[in-house]
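Service request form, structural biology core

Requester: graduate student, group of Dr. S.
Request type: structure prediction, single chain
Budget code: on file
Notes: please return the result as structure tokens.

Sequence provided:
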Amino acid sequence: MMTFVVLPTPTLTTARLVLRPFRDDDRNAVYLLHASAPVMQYWDSSPWTEMAQADRFLARCRALAEEASGARVAVDRREDAAFLGWIGLQRWDPVSRKANLGYVLAEDAWGHGYATEAGQALLDWAFPAMNLNRVSAQADTRNRASGRVLEKLGFTLEGTLRENVIVDGEVSHDWTFGLLRREWEAARASR
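Core staff response, request fulfilled:
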């Protein structure tokens, strides 16, 4: 017998950020984020060219919550409610107690520690709420900044997925990172 798990999308507040469920009025901001060539440079798809892609993204965010297969939240700056990007956990497996972390922030949000702050808040919610034992993440090997974010969050580099992504004919490699519950607990206790 399969048990249905309810996983409401959280609203989380940090010193500088609000992580919240997506709204329909996020459509334009989501489109502009994913239409940016610099933002999408190390992503697993080309920059968006159609607003319908934003509609499908928002529908997928709702589906993650409805299917209880993950949680994806918008990241806003607290001081002015500016949309900075998103962060989420996908491919949640409650039996194996694992999920995969992903995030995208606008170019003008880079270098301010927002990804680390958002990641910490989401992980601090997710490990207990989702009863996780492991969180995985991937980063393009050319994206050293994303690798540093994951290391600051306590992730360990576990290997390289060679030729893992092909976008517009360009082949790239991904690092794969992992964070175990006991590692997250130890890091949280030392904060």
